[in-house]
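User: Before I run my own analysis I want an independent prediction to cross-check against. Here's the chain; please return only the structure tokens and, at the end, one sentence I can use as a sanity check.
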Amino acid sequence: MNSAESDASKACDIVEKAVAILRDYPLCDRCLGRMFALLGRGWSNKERGDAIKRLVVMGLHARIREGDKEAARLFEQLAPNIGPQASKLYEELFGKQLEPRKCYICGSELDKWIQRAGEESLKQLRLIETRSFLVAAKIDEKIRVREDTLKQRYGLSHAESIGSEVKREVSKIIQAKTELKPNFVNPDVVIAVHIPGGDVELQIMPLLLKGRYWKTSRRISQSFWITRRGEKRYPLSVEEALSPLLDLYDADELVLHASGREDADARMLGTGRPFIVELKRPRKRLVGLHEAAASVEKSTNGLVSVELSGEAVRKDVVELKSSDQKKAKVYKALIVVEKEISDEELRGLEEFFRMREIRQRTPRRVRHRRPDIVRERIVYSVDARKLAANVFEAIIVAEGGLYIKELVSGDEGDTSPSFSEYLGAKALCVELDVIGVKI
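Assistant: Structure tokens:
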């Protein structure tokens, strides 16, 4: 068989399979075309099914014109399952009007459902600010089973699923009427199309903004803190400070994801602390980052300020939280000792705590709400400066996760070695600032 004969043979195979299917099942143009969807480019399944049906009708008509009575009987059998493509010839041959049967898979409704889903999607998308979308198809199990039955029974290896067709065709309707682009990785909106019916549900995906925050005052917790008596534990939290973003982005809820946390009575200065704010169901997305940051600072009179550097994705949140323990933190501690201290003792303290491993049990003050474990952390360096006979300031660089107040006090022996232990006198951290979070 030469090349031309081979091509003709494959075309005949398609027609023969189509005849075999249509002999048993009525199919609309979309559902028939979908059985051969991987063949040919630049056509919709509707066009593909229409072309195949016309080819079937033309082939049978040619045989009928040559007097083939078997072809006439086959055409009479197939015509109701083919539909409009066969109606004119059917009337001419049999002198009566064709009554097409409904599609075995979709009841001849798929075209209408797709159009309805497209129009409803456009209607809902006009109510929000969005830049990208993804269409998802929710196909009824009965429809899926009917489609799979045909694929298996006739060995249709070039078919695609009804879900793929619905997703593609609804996407084409949206793109034709808007400037929105499909995004298969991180869409602003997921449009769920229900088949049968073509009903649509819009799922507005969260907006994640990354940046750093600073606390210039004490008694500001990181998260909103309500006591058992239903009262606010602190007058302000970083989470509350971010609340103007809810109005700005017309969002329902926000969640703060931060790289670790400082105590409420510790300021966050210096480099600021990395964070990601998650805004749930934002109806607006095209807000300038500078405007958003300014709204936070204005609402707190500068007690909390933020710098927003761009959008993040979900894996950034995981990385932000998982890497916290590996990051070095820089602290400034004001320390009071129950005895006078000399410059020599401070130089000795600096030397002793250079690259020193600390064993620390979960501090007593937080043991009621944190797992009681013993952790090992490194103090990289201490730079001490005497301020008064029994007062000094220390710049401490330590591994993330080390409780600095307890590094100073010793927490009744639960943290060792400690500043108290080294100095041989009780030492207390009376003020603490975080001045650096290294990435």
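Sanity check: The first helix runs from residue 3 to 24.
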